[in-house]
Recover the amino acids of this structure.
């Protein structure tokens, strides 16, 4: 599948779910990638962070996109919009999961990310999913202020992570959804065959 063409035309998208089997596409929950083993001071520079997920970049199977969120929910919820979104989103070389639990969210049970299914973008709005790569964002709240500045600054939607697509086994008993049963939306500048750093975003909750 031509990922760049998909991002430009936005007629189709790639849908990912969780999987019990390692599909080499990344994981949600668990430990952060080995890449971050020596970067604790960088990741926690402004506030203590929890690892959320890593997905292999469809443009380049040697790269991953990882998401971290503040441990403190009040810090998360007070900064959920660009340009002051508290999420840390990093495009980095692909590495395996670390054996260290420096950033591990104790409320999440690790699940792998499945192989992608290619679907019509309009059809995707009728389905639940963990990750939707390409197409157009499926918003919980339709307010333009979430994404207007991103568009004005030349950023385009690349993918979202939707908590509606969590399996029952992802959240430990009596624990809360990290984003209030919401969704995370990631944007970047799209170049020829690549996603340019930095990757920015916002998140919404129900």
């Amino acid at each position: 599948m031509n990922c760049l063409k998909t991002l430009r035309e936005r007629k189709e998208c790639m849908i990912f779910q969780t999987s019990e089997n390692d599909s080499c596409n990344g994981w949600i929950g668990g430990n952060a990638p080995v890449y971050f083993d020596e970067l604790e001071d960088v990741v926690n520079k402004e506030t203590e962070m929890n690892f959320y997920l890593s997905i292999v970049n469809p443009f380049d199977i040697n790269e991953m996109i990882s998401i971290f969120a503040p441990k403190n929910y009040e810090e998360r919820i007070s900064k959920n919009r660009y340009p002051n979104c508290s999420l840390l989103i990093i495009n980095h070389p692909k590495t395996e999961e670390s054996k260290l639990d420096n950033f591990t969210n104790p409320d999440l049970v690790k699940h792998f990310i499945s192989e992608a299914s290619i679907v019509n973008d309009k059809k995707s709005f009728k389905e639940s999913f963990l990750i939707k790569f390409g197409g157009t964002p499926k918003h919980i709240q339709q307010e333009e202020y979430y994404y207007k500045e991103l568009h004005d600054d030349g950023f385009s939607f690349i993918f979202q992570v939707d908590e509606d697509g969590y399996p029952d086994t992802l959240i430990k008993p009596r624990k809360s959804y990290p984003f209030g049963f919401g969704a995370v939306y990631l944007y970047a500048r799209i170049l020829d065959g690549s996603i340019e750093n930095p990757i920015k975003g916002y998140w919404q909750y129900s």
The first strand starts at residue 12 and ends at 16. Residues 3-204 form a domain with the Hypothetical protein YwqG fold fold (CATH 2.30.320).
